[in-house]
Amino acid sequence: MRQALIVKCCECGQIRAGTRWQQERKQADRLVIYSHTYCPACLQKVLQEFDQFGQITPSEMRKAG
Ligand SMILES: [Zn+2]
Fold first, then answer.
1. How far is the CA of 33 from the centre of ligand 1 (A)?
2. 18 sits in which H/E element
3. pTM for the whole thing?
4. I need a labelling partner for 2 at 20 to 30 A (CA). Which of 22, 26, 33, 34 fits?
């Protein structure tokens, strides 16, 4: 049985195929090993959420302190 290392976005579930991201197809003849990461689109989304979190936290801390 062949092995395949698949890089998969843990947000939208797309897999990396070379430089592109696409929906996963069944890998019936392969032993698939997943490496979870973010595709570029979801990475942007996650970074923006971190930015918002970073902006909220200091003022929340000032209120609390
Ligand atoms: Zn994604």
1. 18
2. none
3. 0.65
4. 22
As a whole number of angstroms, the distance between CA 10 and CA 60 comes to: 30
Residues in the chain: 65
pLDDT at position 25: 81
Strand-pair category, 15-17 with 20-22: antiparallel
Residues 3-45 have pLDDT tens digits of 888 999 999 999 999 999 999 887 677 788 999 999 999 999 9
Q: How many domains does the chain have?
A: 1
- Distance (angstroms) between ligand 1 centre and the Cα of 35 equals 13
d(CA 50, ligand 1 centre) in Å: 16
